[in-house]
Amino acid sequence: MIKSRLKICDLTLRDGHQSLFATRMRTSDMEPIAPEMNKAGFYSMEVWGGATFDVTTRFLNEDPWDRPRILKKLMPDTPLQMLLRGQNLVGYRNYADDVVAAFVQHSADVGIDVFRVFDAVNDERNFEAGLKAIKKAKKHAQLAISYSLTEPRLGGPLYNIEYFVNKATILQKMGADSICIKDMAGLMAPEDAYDLIKALKKVIKVPICLHSHYTSGMGSMTLLKAVEAGVDIVDTALAPFALRSSHPAIEPLVVALQGTKWDTGLDLNLLFKLGEYFEKIAPKYRDFMDNTRMSVIDTGVLIHQIPGGMISNLVSQLREAGALDRINEVYEELPRVRKELGNPPLVTPTSQIVGIQAVQNVLFGRYKMISGQVKDYVYGLYGKPPAPIDPDVQKIVLKGYERGETPITGRAADALEPEMAKAEEATRGIARDIGDVLTYALYPTTGLAFLKAKYGQAPPPPSVEKAKTLEDIKREDEMMAKVKTGKVKDLVSEKKFKVRSFKVYMEDQVYSVGVEEVDGHMLPTSVTNVTSVSAQMVSVQPAKHEIAPGDEQIPAPMPGVIIRYDVKVGDTVKAGDSIVVLEAMKMDNTIPAPAGGKVKALCFKAGDHVNRNDLLAIISP
Ligand SMILES: [Mn+2]
Fold it and tell me: How many angstroms from the chain centroid is the CA of residue 597?
């Protein structure tokens, strides 16, 4: 490896494409360039973790464990790095310690050398199980601190220099091989980076890495100031997969530092060649890019510190609920909810937990509807938030909570039963190795569907997307050129072309794509978003129910899937008792009885899809 003063962790193959086009890059597009990237002399390359696990099984029909295995063979000289969400691993909830141990060991076995571990609430106890397993596997443990702010700049009562120095000291004492400051929303200002890294370097002996997204436009300036303050490692991506909501590009940094004591020693010509490759294949993924704005930076983040990805989630949730006009109320509610919930950093999964509660507070009244995840969070299952939770909110949220109304204060994962034996049992006859069992343990629904397809027991699930080739892109471009010149009309009028339409699933959206067959080639001719239409198509038609005067009707507040009814017909209920649990906005939502009485009818059953305002239950006085 080239000896260099400033070490570079390259993110192109993980955070780069995760940030820019929803993690859709396929392993087959990494293989041709991997041997060349291996020669670059990167300190490490992040290639796995984060959303890659979920996306490969759900959308790409790729075995998630194959990617590090393949890349390890092609890049034997470069340490491979993964992002691990602490006790959440690569999922969205805390897993039991035995799952964490098995996951880390298997990741090490398939080729991961450096584990970057972070926790959404910076509770160091959520690192314990992962750290133990990383040490056991004799791999590098890079423990990360989620960077967050409550003020426009570093400082204030919570997220100040002391907070981060204190956290880093704890992590170093625990045995971190290096420390990372993880600025996932690009909030870190250059001068704050300088002060923070200076302060950290005074007390931290292990190498320090800075991960700062480009989102707000400050990224490159921030890295430069961190370098001047003595940071050891910085995270970058090759230019085609850099900037926007990704990371600073490596190429200008190499030149900026040339001849200084921080010279990276990287070969600019080789980096240029690598970039050309990614430029060539990038059009395959252009459908997943956000090209709706001229600006490649999100200046809104500078004003309200809310990451763009989170805003687009809020917008889509409000749209689903038919209340897009209330977005400004949600913006006002969001910091209030965040403060009441102990000001957690906004990163998966806390960004969803806080964001969705803010939406529900606006739509249904403050804490009138509370998701299962918010209850778990307030109970302490995600760990200890950076600041105390508002005691009044805690009381409201935990009222009637099945685990108890007094929150736990111990390590969150101590409350969880071992899970591996059950996962092995559930995958008997399908799973052929521990990797398969873990795929199921992390994602019981989509993971199992993937495994069944992998072993030919079922066709690939409908969520799987067809890979686009550069040929497809060329045809699309030719088609578009024809549309622009008006020639396409003649094409369509000829009867020999068969028009068909396909449903395409992206995230939680459904598109209808019209396709024509021309000389054996498929040409897309139209794209329509049909999400709401298809939701109506799959929803079960509710049976007709007699409504008597005085009957309380419980409608679905938003579209979703019935998880379970908590009552039976004939049960007597009090106002506020849970009647039905509805999965919507990726959260489990308890719908309470609006008034006491007798359950007269339950209009659906578990697993049914419902539309907004569908009648879920009737309670008679
Ligand atoms: Mn990141």
Answer: 42
pLDDT tens digits, residue range 233-285? 999 999 999 999 999 999 999 999 999 999 999 999 999 999 999 999 999 99
- Ligand 1 centre to CA of 255 (Å) is 24
pLDDT band for 501, please (50, 70, 90 cuts).
low
DSSP 8-state secondary structure symbol assigned to residue 593: P
Distance (angstroms) between ligand 1 centre and the Cα of 246 equals: 7
- Whole-number Å distance, alpha carbon 143 to ligand 1 midpoint, is 14
**CB within 8 A of 371, min separation 6: which ones?**
353, 356, 357, 360, 585, 587, 588, 589, 590
Q: Residue 555, Cα to own-chain centre: how many angstroms?
A: 30
183 CA distance to ligand 1 centroid (A)? 7
Nearest partner of 95 among 148, 46, 133, 135, judged by Cα: 133
Between the CA of 250 and the centroid of ligand 1 the distance, in Å, is 15
**For residue 211, how far is its CA from the centre of ligand 1 (angstroms)?**
7
Using the mean position of ligand 1's atoms as its centre, give its distance from the Cα of residue 359 in Å. 25
* C-alpha 176 to ligand 1 mean position (Å): 19
Is residue 587 within 8 Å of 356, Cβ to Cβ?
Answer: yes
The radius of gyration of the chain's CA atoms, rounded to the nearest angstrom, is: 26
What would the pLDDT profile of 62-118 be if each residue is shown by its tens digit? 999 999 999 999 999 999 999 999 999 998 888 999 999 999 999 999 999 999 999
Report the separation in Å between the CA atom of 213 and the middle of ligand 1, taken as the mean of its atom positions.
Answer: 6
How far, in Å, from the CA of 38 to the mean position of ligand 1? Answer: 22
Q: Give me the DSSP letters along 398-467.
A: HTT-TT-SSPP-S-GGGGS---HHHHHHHTTTT--SHHHHHHHHH-HHHHHHHHHHHTTSSPPPTTPPPP
- Parallel, antiparallel or unpaired: strands 114-117 and 140-146: parallel
Distance (Å) from CA 205 to ligand 1 centroid: 24
Nearest Cα residue to 621 out of 547, 532, 555, 540: 547
> Rounded CA gap, 239 and 398, in Å?
48
State the distance from the centre of ligand 1 to the C-alpha of 271, rounded, in angstroms.
Answer: 21
Q: Hey, CA dihedral for 280, 281, 284, 287, is it positive or negative?
A: negative
If you measure from the C-alpha of residue 15 to the centroid of ligand 1, how many angstroms do you get, rounded to a whole number?
6
Q: Reply yes or no: is the peptide bond before residue 349 cis, omega within 30 of 0.
A: yes
The residue type of 144 is: A
Helix (H, G, I), strand (E, B) or coil at 192: helix
Ligand 1 centre and the CA of 245: distance in Å?
9
pLDDT digit string (tens) for 305-335? 887 778 878 888 888 888 989 989 999 999 9
CA of 19 to the centre of ligand 1 (A): 8
Strands (DSSP E) along 177-278, which ranges? 178-183, 208-212, 233-236
- Encode pLDDT of 207-229 as tens digits: 999 999 999 999 999 999 999 99
Dist. CA 122 → ligand 1 center (Å): 15
Q: How far is the CA of 44 from the centre of ligand 1 (A)?
A: 15
Whole-number Å distance, alpha carbon 393 to ligand 1 midpoint, is: 31
Do 298 and 46 contact (CB within 8 A), yes or no? no
C-alpha 371 to ligand 1 mean position (Å): 27
Can you tell me the distance from the alpha carbon of 88 to that of 344, in angstroms, rounded to the nearest whole number?
Answer: 16
